[in-house]
Structure formats: C-alpha cells, structure tokens
Amino acid sequence: MSFALASLVALQELFATPLTLDEMRGKQAVVETTLGEIVIELLPEKAPNHVGYFMKLAAEGAYDGTSFHRVVKYGIVQGGDPVTRDPNARDRYGTGGLGFLAREPSDEKHTRGAVSAVQIPGKPDSAGSQFFLVVTDQPGLDGQFTVFARVVEGMAVVQRISETPVDEKGHATERVEIVKVTLRDKPPPEIPPFSTETVEELSQYRVVLVTSFGEITVELYPDKAPNHVRNFLRLAEIGAYQGLAFHRIVPGFVIQTGYLETRSEPPSERILKYVQNLEPEFNDILHEPGVLSMARGDELDSASTSFFIVTGTATSLDHKYTAFGRVVDGMQVVKAVEAVPTDGDTPLGRVELSRVRVEKVPQ
C-alpha cells in the first residue's frame, strides 16, 4: 500500500464520522494564544482532508497547551506539535503529530497570512497536526506544501510570535502557547459603523480627543463634509485612534495627529480594512483657530487618517483642505500641546492621543 493511500486510510480511521464538505464550509478557527488571538478561515475546497483533520483535532482540544516551537523572524511561525506540551522535551520539538495526510496540491499561494501543513523533510505525503503561518510572502514554498487556511484577523499577533527569540536551530527559547482553538461559523460581513446614518443623524455626534494633556471636545459638520465625518467617526469607533501621538506641531499654525505609524500597537486587520483615501470635500469653513481638518499629501484625494487642529489663522489652507469640525471645549489643551518643544515640526517628547471617544449629543 502506498504511503498516500495509507495516510488516507489512517485519516478515515481517525474520524468516527467523516466530515462532509458542507460541514466544513464557512468555518473559522479562533486560535487563542498567550500573545493574543488569531482567527483563521478554513479552505475545505482546497484541502478537504487537511481541513477535516484540523477540525477534528481542534474539537478534541489537541492543540490546547502546545506552543509555537519554531519561528523565522518576519518569515513563518510553526506550531501544532503535541510534543511541545512538555517544556522538558525541547530536543524532540517538531517531531510529533506527523505522518497522517497526503499532500493536497492547489493554486493557493504562500502569501502573507497563509496557513500551511508541515511535512517530514523529503516526504511530501506526511503532514499531520503541525502547521505554519506565513508572515511575509514565501513563494519558494508554493506547490510544495498544502495551504489549508488563511489568517483573517490577528496578523499582528502572528508577527509578534515571529519575533520570539530563537536558539541556533531556530527553535523558540520562550514559550508562546496555544491556549485554546475554538471552531465557529464564519460571521456575516460587518456593516461598517456609521454607514447608514443620515446627515442629520451624523450631526448628533461629537468626539472627544483624550490626550496626555487633557480632553479636547470637537463638534462635527456633516452638512459640510459628510464623507469625512462618517469616516472619522468610523475610525474612532473601531479604535483606530487609540495609542497614537501628535507627530507634528507648528506653533501658530497646526497640531497634527492620526498617523497610524505612531500607534503604540500595530493596527488590526479590521482597522486597516477601513483605511481609505477620501475624495476632497472642500467647503466654506475657514481654517481659523480650533478648526478640525484632514491632512493630505500632494494628491487632492490622499486624505485618510491623519488630521490637524488649527492654532492660528491659516488662510493658505482654505478651500484646499477639508475642514469638518471645530473645538468647542479644550482649547487650553490644544495650546498646551502646541507649546511642547520641537525639533523642526517634530515634538521632542511623545504627546499621546490615547483614544478618540464618540459621544451622542443629548437632544
């Protein structure tokens, strides 16, 4: 009997009731780790045997308590070996749980977020419980290993795992454990926050910028820039503006924040999904002290997340940048931020924007 046929027979024996494609479709696995949560979407049409085996093991708790034992910084992270439950068996990490599955070739590529099956070197039909997650594209692996799932949330966690220190063999020297793997139905597509409100309904909201110097309350003008207001409220609601910094201060001109590169934690996939360039909505709001306006690059439609508060009369910005709000409380905080020492336009110390809180104005 060939190894491939034997592996399929072994797989059938492992399943008391083999899963059908319909039972495997539309499923996700929530992988809770000691560094955070990873959600992977399973691909039964591409690799039914691998998906079925993974689901079986997950349902049995076979991954709980195992650790990611091999990492390549910003390359791949590898886990799923039952041997890794034992911290004293490091010399055998990577040897367990293999030899059950034949390779299932497909057109799935080893791009960022791919989840692929580990094999015994030189034996393509030898996969099992072990898997690896791709941090950056690995085209050299295409066609050699079976991609059976993709990360849809938590790539920042995967990247952090890849940064775990390793020994000379590439084995992690610190334990990052899989606490639990939970299977669930794929949730329906999210309705983007603030996508259905009318302009009148949008006008009922204001935002509070919570900074390391205090709070700044801003009223919004959806009648002047409805898409900018809608986008700003959405980003605030999903936490895009948590843990940022004021990265540009020009006394007598503007204080600027909202640049995602200044976040203390990388933005999640959900946040990045809603980052978009905005068509300009230039209007008759003048750039006077206290006005909230969107920053942009040279292209008129390049505004996305970064915004500024005007601290002086800035007529050069009128009708060239989209103003969409105004400070109604906290100008003393704006002035305190403006007074921070700078090197050119860059603050010498970090001025934190811890979050932007959305509030509904009492009617």
CATH architecture of the largest domain: Beta Barrel
> In terms of structural class, how would the helical and strand content be classed?
alpha+beta
Sketch the major β-sheet.
9 strands, antiparallel
The radius of gyration computed from the alpha-carbon positions, rounded to a whole number of angstroms, is 26 Å
What proportion of the residues is helical, as a percent range?
10-25%
Give the C-level CATH assignment of the largest domain. Mainly Beta
Number of domains: 2
First-last Cα distance = 77 Å
Explain what you see:
The protein has 363 residues and is α+β, with helices and mostly antiparallel strands. The chain has helices spanning 3-14, 21-24, 48-60, 155-162, 199-202, 226-237, 269-273, 331-338; strands at residues 27-33, 36-42, 70-72, 76-79, 114-117, 131-134, 147-153, 178-185, 205-211, 214-220, 244-245, 248-250, 254-257, 291-294, 307-310, 323-329, 342-343, 346-347, 352-360. Strands 11-19-9-10-16-14-15-13-12 form a nine-stranded antiparallel sheet. The longest helix has 13 residues, at 48-60.
Please render the helix and strand layout as text.
Elements: H1 3-14, H2 21-24, E1 27-33, E2 36-42, H3 48-60, E3 70-72, E4 76-79, E5 114-117, E6 131-134, E7 147-153, H4 155-162, E8 178-185, H5 199-202, E9 205-211, E10 214-220, H6 226-237, E11 244-245, E12 248-250, E13 254-257, H7 269-273, E14 291-294, E15 307-310, E16 323-329, H8 331-338, E17 342-343, E18 346-347, E19 352-360
Antiparallel strand pairs: 1-2, 1-8, 2-7, 3-4, 4-6, 5-6, 5-7, 9-10, 9-19, 10-16, 11-19, 12-13, 13-15, 14-15, 14-16, 17-18
